[in-house]
C-alpha cells in the first residue's frame, strides 16, 4: 500500500509540473524566489556540482539558480523553461562571453554582480538583505 501511495504522489507531482506553463522571464519568480544567474563560457560541470551540493542552503533562501554555458542551460528549477528564457536572459544580464554572476532579489532587481561564483559571498549578501532578515526572524521558534 505504501509503494502505491508513493507512486501516486510521484505521478501526481510530475503531472502537475508537466502541465505548468514554461517560465518565460524572471518576472515569473518575482516575490517568490531569489535568482542566481551564472554565465560560464567554459565547462560548467565543476560549478554545477558545487551548486547541487548546496541544495539545502539554496532552498532555505528560496534561491533558484541558472547556469548559462555555450547555449546550454542547467538549473535547480524543477519546471519547464521556454526557449526565449534560455536565449534572452543571458543577453539581458551578461555582457559578452566572459564569466559573470548576477544575484537578483525577490523584487526583481539585480542586487549583486561578480566575475566568479563564491557561495559564501552570495549567502552573506542574501542573509544581509532586509527581506531575508525578516524571513529568518519569522522562522525562529518562539
Automatic annotation (TrEMBL):
The keyword Signal applies. Pfam families: DUF4174. Residues 26-135 form the DUF4174 domain. Keywords: Signal. It comes from the Bacteria. Residues 1-18 form the signal peptide. This is DUF4174 domain-containing protein. The lineage of its organism: Bacteria, Pseudomonadati, Pseudomonadota, Gammaproteobacteria, Cellvibrionales.
Amino acid at each position: 500500500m505504501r509503494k502505491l501511495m508513493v507512486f501516486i504522489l510521484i505521478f501526481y507531482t510530475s503531472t502537475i509540473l508537466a502541465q505548468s506553463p514554461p517560465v518565460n522571464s524572471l518576472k515569473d519568480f518575482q516575490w517568490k524566489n531569489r535568482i542566481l544567474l551564472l554565465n560560464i563560457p567554459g565547462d560548467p560541470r565543476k560549478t554545477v556540482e558545487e551548486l547541487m551540493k548546496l541544495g539545502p542552503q539554496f532552498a532555505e533562501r528560496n534561491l533558484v539558480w541558472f547556469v548559462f554555458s555555450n547555449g546550454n542551460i542547467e538549473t535547480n528549477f524543477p519546471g519547464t523553461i521556454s526557449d526565449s528564457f534560455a536565449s534572452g536572459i543571458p543577453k539581458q544580464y551578461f555582457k559578452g562571453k566572459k564569466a559573470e554572476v548576477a544575484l537578483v532579489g525577490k523584487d526583481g532587481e539585480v542586487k549583486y554582480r561578480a566575475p566568479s561564483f563564491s557561495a559564501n559571498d552570495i549567502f552573506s549578501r542574501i542573509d544581509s538583505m532586509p527581506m531575508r532578515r525578516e524571513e529568518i526572524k519569522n522562522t525562529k521558534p518562539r
